[in-house]
């Protein structure tokens, strides 16, 4: 296996050369690749990728795909991509499945900042030559419940929300009442629910959710009717209300399954590593009495 000689300071050229060395010979030195890319931030990874292209006239991602496989290849490839491009890939992957995991779309639409979401949609359009909203809307189904889910997803994905802290308490009180009536009323009108969730800022919606709890004595997610639509609606609300708590729950669900959900686990860790993973891990430890590191090491083996 290749022996890595670390430079005294970060050098994208030396990193690119060491990755190339790790890919040569009888077997790929996977630990060397992890040691390099796993300890580089977003800006550094971008420089390494550019250096690799300039030196070897090959995309680093293509080299990694040839040398690695399985969950390791997926995690390293996602980690190496720019965040907007990574989200575009994740969204497209889930939409290609016969049973899409709509949580992926909701996380991108409801947790990313307005500017980040816009960048994701641009990256998606550049990669796939059509828009994310188009691909969501192109699903055809005779099941009215699925149609409503897609309307909700298109609504939150099409949004460009105000990103400040200000909110209108009068609007919050009015829309808390509207949400209660539309969710629990006999004549359910999804259009009003979608309008509120897809046009209001996070601050405004959290004010609405807080007032809802004050008025009705329980959180808005309590007492939802059953079904896929309300499960999707609950995920949207959780992502808007408390993203860190939501991700801690996704990690717990992914790890506690009889067969670990590797896609969900790697998605959360890779996409939040440079944002709020530290806080998510602290929440996970507090709620599960075991650290994420220990839980992952217990469930997974190898690289």
UniProtKB/TrEMBL annotation:
Matches recorded under InterPro entries: Annexin, Annexin_repeat, Annexin_sf, AnnexinD_plant
Amino acids binding Ca(2+) 1: 25, 27, 67, 299
Pfam (any one): Annexin
Keywords of the record: Annexin, Calcium, Calcium/phospholipid-binding, Metal-binding, Repeat
Keyword Calcium: yes
GO biological process per UniProt: response to cold; response to heat; response to salt stress; response to water deprivation
Ligand binding (Ca(2+) 2): 255, 297
Signal peptide range in chain numbering: none
A GO term, aspect molecular function: phosphatidylserine binding
GO cellular component terms attached to this protein's record: cytoplasm; plasma membrane
Protein name (database record): Annexin
């Amino acid at each position: 296996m290749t022996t890595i000689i670390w430079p005294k300071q970060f050098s994208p050229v030396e990193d690119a050369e060491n990755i190339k060395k790790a890919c040569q010979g009888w077997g790929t030195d996977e630990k060397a690749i992890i040691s390099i890319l796993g300890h580089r931030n977003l800006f550094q990874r971008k420089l390494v990728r550019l250096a690799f292209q300039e030196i070897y006239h090959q995309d680093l991602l293509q080299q990694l795909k040839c040398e690695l496989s399985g969950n390791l290849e997926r995690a390293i490839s996602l980690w190496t991509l720019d965040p907007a491009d990574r989200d575009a890939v994740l969204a497209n992957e889930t939409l290609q499945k016969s049973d899409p995991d709509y949580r992926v779309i909701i996380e991108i639409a409801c947790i990313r900042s307005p500017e980040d979401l816009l960048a994701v949609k641009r990256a998606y359009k550049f990669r796939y030559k059509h828009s994310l909203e188009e691909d969501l809307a192109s699903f055809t189904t005779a099941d009215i419940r699925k149609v409503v889910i897609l309307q909700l997803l298109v609504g939150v994905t099409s949004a460009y929300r105000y990103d400040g802290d200000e909110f209108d308490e009068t609007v919050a009180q009015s829309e808390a009442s509207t949400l209660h009536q539309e969710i629990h009323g006999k004549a359910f009108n999804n259009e009003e629910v979608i309008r509120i969730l897809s046009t209001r800022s996070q601050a405004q919606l959290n004010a609405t959710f807080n007032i809802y709890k004050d008025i009705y004595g329980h959180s808005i997610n309590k007492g939802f009717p059953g079904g896929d639509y309300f499960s999707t609606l609950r995920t949207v609300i959780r992502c808007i209300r408390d993203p860190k708590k939501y991700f801690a729950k996704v990690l717990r669900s992914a790890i506690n399954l009889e067969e670990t959900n590797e896609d969900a686990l790697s998605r959360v860790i890779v996409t939040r590593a440079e944002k709020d993973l530290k806080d998510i891990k602290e929440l996970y430890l507090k709620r599960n009495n075991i650290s994420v590191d220990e839980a992952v090491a217990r469930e997974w083996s190898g690289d």
